[in-house]
Give the backbone structure.
Amino acid sequence: MKAMFDHISERTSKMVTNSYSTSFSLGVKFLAKKFHNPIYAIYGFVRFADEIVDSFHDFDKKKLLNDFKADTYRAIEDGISLNPILNNFQQVVNQYQIEKWLIDTFLQSMEMDLTEQTYDQEQYENYILGSAEVVGLMCLRVFVEGDDAAYNKLRYNAMKLGSAFQKINFLRDFKADVEGLGRMYFPQLLNGEFNEATKREIEADILQDFQTGFEGIKQLPKDARFGVYVAYIYYFNLFKKIMDTPVSRIMHERIRIPDNQKYALFFGSYLRHSFNLL
């Protein structure tokens, strides 16, 4: 039965999300139930593409990504795929009318990760757009449920929130990106060193993104607002921890928030939301 296969596809996306990201999985749980599967589907899609370029070093990553790209578009056009992740993703794309350019732009950013490089300002902005901002727009398409006016009103905020999250990932994963993958994303480091001054410059840019993103969170539909706010709280506290961490540590270890502190943050977020402090 097709319904059974679709159910398996949904469970696969959820399993991928839960396996790869505890923090994201917890954030999804605070969304209205109707949004769980669509957001799992989007995460599963972007995670598989990211895994190709980040992890499959013993294989022809360019070929794998090209095959994944072709399979994605075929799934969307046909309305089905034997790849459960793509089958679930195409359902969400077609149901919520997620624009093709969002998918195109995301996959282009994955192609950028196939080569070791240091990014200038234009390349950096293009990468942020493709790897993070358009993913925020995919999620926004789900949250507004066809309300184009709400989508157009909140699209810039959603892009900036995605941008803030991605830039924090760059700082958190600095060592792995530079030493393991040969990537230097921040254009401030193109002709200079990573020191406390450049770190503060990067942090000031992230803070602006956060402020713009938060204004959008407050205007999201109620069914989506709390789940996105939980993700915001987690990333903002990770950001504060990174701000308090010297460059020397960031260059040599991955900065993280322990699980017990994550749960405390989420509980505090629930209390603020319950008392209408958001």
Observations:
- The CA atoms of residues 107 and 210 lie 25 Å apart.
- Strands lie at 117-118, 183-184.
- The chain has 13 helices and two strands.
